[in-house]
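Example 768.
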Amino acid sequence: MFTQEKDYFLFSTATTSLVLHVNEVGKLVCEYYGSRISSLEEAPSLTSPHPFIQGTSLAYDEKHQNVSLDYLHNEFSTPGKGDFHAPSLVLSEGQEVVFDFVYDSFEVKTPEKIPGLPTPHGAKEEVVITCLEKARKAKLRLHYLVYEEEDVIGRYLEIVNENEAVLSVHKAASLQLCLLNHGDSLVSLYGAWANELNPEEAPLRHGRFLNESMSGLSSNRHNPFFLIKEKGGDAQHGACYGFNLVYSGNHQESVELDTFEVVTIQSGISPFLFKKDLAKEEHFYTPMAVMSYSKEGTNGLSLHYQDFVNDCVIPSVWKGRIRPIVYNNWEATMFSFNKAKLTSLMKEASALGIELFVLDDGWFGERNDDRHGLGDWECNTKKIPGGLASLSKEAKKLGLKFGIWMEPEMVNKASKCYQAHPDWIIHDGVHEPTEGRHQYLLDLRKKEVQDFVYASVSNVLNSADISYLKWDCNRMMSDFPEGYTSFFYDDVVGLYSVLERLVEDFPNVLFENCASGGNRFDLGMLSYFPQSWLSDDTDSFQRLTIQAGAAYGYPLSVMSNHVAAKTSNQLLRLTSLDSKFDVASFGVLGYELDLNDLTPLDKKIIQGQIAYYKEHRPLFQFGHRYQLASFKEGNDEAVEILAKDEAIVGRYEKLQKPSPEEARLTAVGLDEKSHYLYQSRPESLSMKKFGHLVNMASPIHLKEEGFLINTISARHDLASEVEKGMASGTALLSGGVALAQEWSGVGYSSEVRLVGDFGGRLYALKKR
Ligand code: DGJ
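Predicted structure in complex with DGJ:
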């Protein structure tokens, strides 16, 4: 909702408000961002008074000796007129760099798509505030969009040159917001391959903190999402401000704390090697930054972003649409498969209740390893006689849908595509191009490359009955042909133009975003592809941290997770299939282990998991996710998903303790006045878990690694405790209900809770 009175603008969502003000010198400043206020009546009281300036600060002009740009909560800042914060906007005209934009006008209009860039949908109106730099004939248009129900406000800039001289944009943060520091800390998400999205919290320090990607992709190093949290706040309490950028390339987030305890926050494209020259009448558009506020801790803030992504970011056709359980052959076979192997995997997948079979890397060209074939998107019929069409038919016969992997932005040197078009890759023409996984990036600024990528993907999709496509991108950018241009930006815009065409032409194909896992996990990609392979790390313990990091700013529906082999490829850590399911089920579930190697017991376990997931699927995919406890703070992690009258709580343990403490099942968000039935998910305890102790119960002696125990445990297990009961919302929200005593080395019984190292348990709650 938007209202305007005198010199004030009020933007309100369901629970938040933002008040902007055009001050006495025509500067646009933020006077308030916090819980919703009802009108602008109180705006004068929210306005920061500046009756004088002190010490070495500069007066804006002779007439306004009390106004210094350095004190104002500027909605944008330029250098050269007395604001000594890092500028959010750096422009030049020839050698001139001082720009002084002042307010001119505003208009309210129907929201429009940002030219070339993904634009969240669902805002009712768009408010454009225009500021002018008269001396240089430059126009700055600030676009504000309110996503009311989701409690999110979006902003982007449009810069227009109205002068004969070229106007250069060096930096243009989409958003700048100034807040007061309350002992705040900053939470950002850092990482690397197979270790993405680590949440890190640090108190704000005087000076400037940058969270940035300069890799060409939004990157696994620093996700564009971050939040500011007030002192003493936690998952459930305290004021939090969150920020994200709808963009997939280089980005920069800046948090600067000054001596007046003002925090200046910026979010936008990275100024790294950036310069965009605008001729007369040319416009430059930044991507949209989206901010939100909650006084209900990091979970409260996360809920806003969960709703925002589900309602306003992912393509509308996928909103609330149930996602299939996939089987992906990558970790099971890598490049080494043939049609017979794939068909046998399909048979097993179908018998287990899996719904979609995904053929990963290695099906095209000469792609028998990662040195060959990228760019040659024709099925290798030596490996798969009859091609993709025949495989998709096999899948259909077995009641499975069929999906495919592609990495359309890349070529190997050893490919027909590269041999025919060596000039299509990103290279500077001087140095030997740098390889990443033996491959090069195609230059998506070129129209013929965009057309090639579009044609490659659409030909594959049209060649068989394909309902899913995993879009990979396994290297970062190097050997840029140009620096100090808009190269990186134009490349991303080129990619978006291809994605736009594809999702428009194939609205019912489920595209899954993947960039070696989470190397391009952002709101830009999610605007086209409704789900994302979060990480190549399928170790469930590590994945918990990755999912928890993602959950600060993204919903369950976008997190694709797979149950992989018991011994993880990445860490060689051994965890049970059930522990893996306890983690992978929070989001979009898949399987990625060799189904031909499963024991009869494994199959029974997986069938049980799939049945459980199907029963609770709307909750797992579209419930609200809350973080209850975290390994960062101790030995336990707990996560809850909640929707209306149902919830599932996942409880996880890092290491089994020798004298375990008592445990209680607690939850958040429930109705205090209602009563809930709760029940733990029965899990399978492997007999091998007990090692030589199994002999205490066995009539014959079983050697710990012997043939007999291996044979028996392939078919038989021990049942976990099953806990069920009824409790009030009040009890579950406060003290919690008592759980069974945990294993402490004194005998197994069905009343003992044996979770063990890296183990978990799920508890379903339903309103009575
Ligand atoms: C990286 C992805 O993240 C994996 O899941 C797999 O698809 C490989 N690429 C295939 O090359």
